[in-house]
Amino acid sequence: MTSPTVMCVSECFVKPQHDLSQDTNQPIYLTPFELTFINAKYSQKGLLFAKPSPENQDFSVTAFLDDLRRSLSATLTHFYPLAARLATRIEQNPPSYVIYIDPQNSPGVKFIHATVDATISDIVASSDVPIVVRSFFDLNDAVNHDGHTLPLLSIQVTELTDGIFIGGSVNHLVADGTSFWHFMSAWSEIFRSNEQNGGVISRPPVFKRWVLEGSDPITKLPFTLLDQPTKGSEHHPQLRERFFHFSSAAVSKLKAKANDECNTQKISSLQAVSALLWRCVTRARQPPLNSETVCNLVTNGRRRVNPPLSDEYFGSPIDIITGTATVEDLMAHGLGWAAMKIHETVKHHDVAAVEKRSWLQNPLVYGCEFGLGKAVAARSGFMNKADGKITMYPGREGGGSMDVEVCMSPEYSMDLECDKELISALESN
Questions:
Q1: Is 393 in contact with 400 (CB distance < 8 Å)?
Q2: Would 192 be classed as within a structural domain?
Q3: What is the largest CA-CA distance in the chain?
Q4: Is pLDDT above 60 for 228?
Q5: Which of 3, 67, 289, 335 has an alpha carbon within 20 to 30 A of 370's alpha carbon?
Q6: Residue 95 preceded by cis peptide, ω within 30
Q7: Which InterPro entries match (predicted)?
Q8: Nearest-angstrom CA–CA distance, 236 and 85
Q9: Segments in 210-326 forming alpha helices (H)
Q10: How far apart are CA 10 and CA 46, in angstroms?
Q11: CATH number of the CATH domain containing 209
C-alpha cells in the first residue's frame, strides 16, 4: 500500500514576543553534559489530536494556526533559547573553541503547516507505526552541530482528515525530553489561557547553567574535535517500529513479579518493564549464549549533580548508563534477576530520578492539549532510531500505564511479537 504524501502548505519563522530581561540576549554556554551530543541527531516527538467535528462552528483550522503561532511567540518569551542558533568562538589561550547558544541574529523557530490525506485510524489502528509518520517532522537527518545554520526547534502542524498532529524537532544540545515536554506544556498553557494572564506560566524554565565546582564555566573544546565529521547519515536502517501498550494492571503485575522473585520491594515499575523488554528483545535476536548483552538507559541528571538542579532546569543534562549480562545468564534467570541488574546499575549511579514513578503517575506528555482535549497518541520521528531502541511514554489513561515503542530489524520483529513472556505480560491488560 502506497504511503500518503505530506504536502507543505506554508512555513514561517516565529520569534519571542518580547524580551523578559537583558539576559535574553546573552550567550548561553553549553555544559559537558550537553556537548557530549554534538554529533547526535535532533530529537523528534509529537502528539496526535482529534480534530473537532465539522458541526463545531467555533473551530477553524486557520484561526487555530493563528492562535498556535501567537501563543508560540508568547511562549518563546520564556523559552528564548529555542529561538536562537548555535555559534562558535575561537580561543587562542589555550588554542580551542567554544560552542554556545546565541539568542541574537536568528530568525526564530520554524513553523510549518502541512496536510496529508490520512485519518487518525490510519496512524493508530495498527500497532505498527506507518511510514508516513516520519514526514510529520521537519529537519530529518540534521545533527545537533547543524544548529549553527538550522533552527534549534522546528514545529510542524500536520492536518489530517479528522486530526491534527503537532510535531517538534529539537536540537538535543538545547533540550532533552524533560525540557521539550516542559516547553510543550507551557505552550499549551498559554494557548488555552488565550494570553488572558499576560503570558504568565506556572513553571518558568531555569537557564542558569550547572558548573562543576572549581571548573571553568565555559567549556573549551580542543581543535581536534572540530575536525570530526558532523554530517548526518542519509542512510536509515530498515526497522519496524511497533507500539505495545501496558495497562496499569500489567505494569503492577510485572513489578510485583520482579520484586517477589528477588524477595525485595526495591524494583520500580520502570525497571521491571525494562527488564522484560531486555529479555524479550535479546531472545528474539537469538545471539550466542556466551556473548554479552547490554541494556542502555538514558538517565535524567538533574538530581545527580551536587547541588541538585531544579526540575525546571532547561537544557540537556542526560547521561547513559549500561547494565550488562551474558545472554546465557539473562535467559537462565528470571525477570527479577534482570530487573535487579538494572536496579543495581541505577543505584550505583545514584540516579534517584530514574527510580521515581512521578512521570508515570503524572503524564505531562498528555497534559499538552492546545484546546483540542487530550491527545489520542504520542509518536516520535525517525531520528536516532536503531535496532533494539525502546522509547517509553506514559500511557494515555495515566495511572502508571505505559506505551512502549520498540524498534527492531524486520528479521527479529516477528519473533518478538510471538515471545511467550511478552504475550503473557500483555495479557494482563
A1: no
A2: yes
A3: 67
A4: no
A5: 3
A6: no
A7: CAT-like_dom_sf (IPR023213), Sec_Metabolite_Acyltrans (IPR051283)
A8: 27
A9: 223-226, 248-262, 269-285
A10: 19
A11: 3.30.559.10
Query: What confidence score (pLDDT) does residue 300 get?
Result: 80
Q: What is the DSSP letter of 39?
A: T
pLDDT tens-digit map of 108-132? 999 999 999 999 999 999 989 999 9
Query: Is residue 98 assigned to a domain?
Result: yes
CB 246 within 8 A of CB 429: yes
Name the H helices within 200-268. Answer: 223-226, 248-262
Per the structure, the complete domain to which residue 289 belongs is given by: 240-426
Reduced to 3 states, what is the DSSP secondary structure of residue 302? Answer: helix
Do 157 and 251 belong to one domain?
no
What pLDDT sits at residue 79? 96
- Grid cell, residue 106, equals 536568528
Strand-pairing partners, residue 405, are 243, 391
User: What pLDDT band is residue 395 in, cutting at 50, 70 and 90?
Assistant: confident
Q: Which residue has the higher pLDDT, 186 or 195?
A: 186
The count of structural domains within the chain is 2
Average pLDDT over residues 388-392: 89
Angle between helices 177-193 and 61-78 (to 10 degrees): 120
Q: Distance between CA 208 and CA 29 in Å, rounded?
A: 10
- b/e map 121-146, b = 16+ CB within 10 Å: ebbbeeeebbebbbbbbbbbebbbbb
* 232: in domain: no
Percent of the chain at pLDDT > 70 equals 90
Among candidate residues 226, 253, 288, the one where a domain is terminated: 226
Alpha helices in 296-370 (DSSP H): 327-332, 335-348, 352-355, 358-361
Dump pLDDT digits (tens) for 313-322.
Answer: 998 888 788 8
Query: Does a structural domain hold residue 1?
Result: no
Q: Return contacts of 405-409, CB within 8 angstroms, 24+ apart.
A: 405/129, 405/241, 405/242, 405/243, 405/380, 406/241, 406/242, 406/243, 406/244, 406/277, 406/281, 407/239, 407/240, 407/241, 408/239, 408/240, 408/242, 408/281, 408/284, 409/237, 409/238, 409/239, 409/240
DSSP state of 41: B
pLDDT of residue 271: 94
Alpha carbon distance 159, 116 (integer Å): 6
Total-model pTM: 0.89
